[in-house]
């Protein structure tokens, strides 16, 4: 039968191991958010779009490659009570050509709502060659009850786009931001004092 001292030593070792595992699990959970952001940026999936500060200079200084054309197809998906669609289904552009398209968003509810658009590209390799100067996806959008608004997307396709890519699909998913109302975080009400 083990002595009380050896049992205490084993319990201390086990406690240390459990503490290390707990710290590692907490660290892993904490690291998941930046890892998810990196994964989404690399794959082009659910990436929260940041405005590209260099896109305007790029568009101003790039040459239009009129020797080739790229068809850009526009798609819209919704999660929630919205009406959301592009005003045109596709456009054919020359790489380096500045282009503007319009998406329409309408809140179909009797209350004010906040939404966010997340872009995705097919083929995924096209994402790095699709430069947006202006986009509603750069910020969350506040819409009043039954309000409808039009938003431009101003972009240029980089002439360095691989020559075998002749069609790009730009797809947006627009969804409600739960807990957000009119640009203010909603507070949770709890019972008791």
UniProtKB/TrEMBL annotation:
The chain crosses the membrane at residues 18-36. It is a single-pass type II membrane protein. GO terms for molecular function: copper ion binding. It is found in: Cell inner membrane. GO terms for cellular component: plasma membrane. The keyword Transmembrane helix applies. Keywords: Copper, Membrane, Signal-anchor, Transmembrane, Transmembrane helix. It comes from the Bacteria. Exerts its effect at some terminal stage of cytochrome c oxidase synthesis, probably by being involved in the insertion of the copper B into subunit I. Belongs to the COX11/CtaG family. This is Cytochrome c oxidase assembly protein CtaG. It comes from Pigmentiphaga aceris. The lineage of its organism: Bacteria, Pseudomonadati, Pseudomonadota, Betaproteobacteria, Burkholderiales.
């Amino acid at each position: 039968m083990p002595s009380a001292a050896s049992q205490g030593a084993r319990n201390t070792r086990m406690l240390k191991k459990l503490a290390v595992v707990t710290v590692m699990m907490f660290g892993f959970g904490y690291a998941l958010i930046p890892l998810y952001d990196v994964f989404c940026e690399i794959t082009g999936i659910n990436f929260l779009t940041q405005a590209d500060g260099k896109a305007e200079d790029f568009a101003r200084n790039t040459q239009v490659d009129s020797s080739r054309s790229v068809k850009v197809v526009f798609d819209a998906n919704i999660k929630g009570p919205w009406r959301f669609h592009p005003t045109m289904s596709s456009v054919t552009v020359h790489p380096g050509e500045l282009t503007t398209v319009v998406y329409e968003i309408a809140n179909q509810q009797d209350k004010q709502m906040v939404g966010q658009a997340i872009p995705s590209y097919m083929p995924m390799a096209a994402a790095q060659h699709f430069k947006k100067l202006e986009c509603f996806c750069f910020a969350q959008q506040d819409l009043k009850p039954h309000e409808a608004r039009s938003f431009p997307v101003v972009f240029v396709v980089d002439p360095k786009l691989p020559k075998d890519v002749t069609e790009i699909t730009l797809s947006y998913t627009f969804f409600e931001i739960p807990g957000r109302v009119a640009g203010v975080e909603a507070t949770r009400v709890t019972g008791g004092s």
